[in-house]
Amino acid sequence: ALCAHENPLGSSNISKTSAVTSANMSDLSRTVPQEQLPSQDLHPSPTPVINLGHLSLDSVTRSGVVNDIAKACRDLGYFQVINHGISQSVMDCAVKAASDFFKLPSEIKEKFASEDLRQPVRYDTSSKDSISMSRAFLKLYAHPLSDWIQYWPQQPPIYREYMEIYAVEARRVALQLMEAILEALGLGKEYLNEKFQEGSQLLSVNCYPKASQGAMTIGLAPHSDYGFLTILLTSCRGLEVVDRSSNSWRTVQQLPHALHVHVGDHMEVLSNGLIKTVVHRAILNSEEARISIASIHGFALDEKVTCAKELVDEQNPQKYKESSLSDFLDHLAANMDNKQRNFLESLKM
Ligand code: OGA
Ligand code: NI
Question: Which family does it belong to (predicted)?
């Protein structure tokens, strides 16, 4: 990729009935140990593709898109977005920066190694965290950027700049999507706006080796993400999700220019279970090493996420305890060597 310093491309009213609340969902995905589910298909399953540009058109078009997002969240917990305003060059540059970082000598990378989950930057390779089967990763706190960027790698020299541009853009997309989902939940797009604006962003920058023949093919074991939304940029195919209708693994398609989006544990909590978190994993690609950048969006470190009181009543009692990102990190630290760790399970009432 050239990675020229290109600017990213330029980036109502809805009926009162909530698009999300009007259906029930199966909850199979967490009742079977995910490792044991069959991989159902050799071909990726079609994933809903949302044209994000339509969110800023007239109110009829917007509410159509909001409904599509709501349906995808409710039925699948994931979808993809196109026309999201992040240029291909910005995405390519972020992947290139990530890839170049992982090519650095181990001594340089190991400087970022830490057992402390609250470190602004944390490098690790497989084995220690029980879910990384075959991956190296660099986790970066990314919002508010001015608090964190001073800790980000300075090698390769382009790293901070390219990762920053992408991080800011990914966050813009996440906030736009969050508004649409809040609208669909009947909470209104301004719901808890300040907490979302001041929220956290964690980048999980992953590097998976090319699969070698006959070797273990799982890069990252099944898990769900803790936040509200994850925006995932990947260099090639490898992500799999649990398909709820067939209760099997599904390969996620790799569409040009698209970003994959899925919901996390705190979305399930906020929606009081109307939207379910998505269990996913990463498989090694047999053709090439793979880079992925997961941008995870939540509230600020100590800000508690609770079930929206508007979604709690006599028929729908509160299903989850409140929790924060900080609580999640404590949970993770206490369950580092435990494969069955599950933050959301620990929140269920
Ligand atoms: C993650 C994640 C998937 C992938 O980092 O949380 O799920 O495809 N990544 O790398
Ligand atoms: Ni994940």
Answer: Belongs to the iron/ascorbate-dependent oxidoreductase family.
* Model pTM score: 0.89
Give the integer Cα–Cα distance in Å for 280 and 258: 18
Q: Is the CB of 233 under 6 A from ligand 1?
A: no
Give residue 193 CA to ligand 2 midpoint distance, Å: 25
d(CA 218, CA 78): 21
- Residue 36 amino acid letter: Q
Residues 6+ apart with CB under 8 A from 5: none
Segment 302-314, tens digit of pLDDT: 999 999 999 999 9
282 lines ligand 1 (CB under 6 A): yes
Measured from the CB, is residue 80 less than 6 Å from ligand 1?
Answer: no
Q: Are strands 218-223 and 136-143 parallel, antiparallel or unpaired?
A: unpaired
| Position 291 confidence tier, pLDDT thresholds 50, 70, 90 | very high
Ligand sitting nearest the alpha carbon of 295? 1
Pocket test for ligand 1, best of 80, 132, 220, 328 (most atoms within 8 A of CB): 220
> To which residue do tokens 């060059």 refer?
89
d(CA 206, CA 238): 12
Measure the CA dihedral 289/222/125/225, to 10°: 100
Least confident range from 29-33, 100-104, 203-207, 342-346: namely 29-33
Q: Compute the distance between CA of residue 171 and CA of residue 179 in angstroms, rounded to an integer.
A: 12
Q: Which two tokens stand for residue 38?
A: 């069959």
Q: Given a cut of 80, is residue 260 above it in pLDDT?
A: yes
Q: Is 265 in the pocket of ligand 1 (CB under 6 A)?
A: no
Q: Is the CB of 224 under 6 A from ligand 1?
A: no
Q: Is the CB of 292 under 6 A from ligand 1?
A: yes
The gap between the terminal CA atoms of the chain, to the nearest Å, is 49
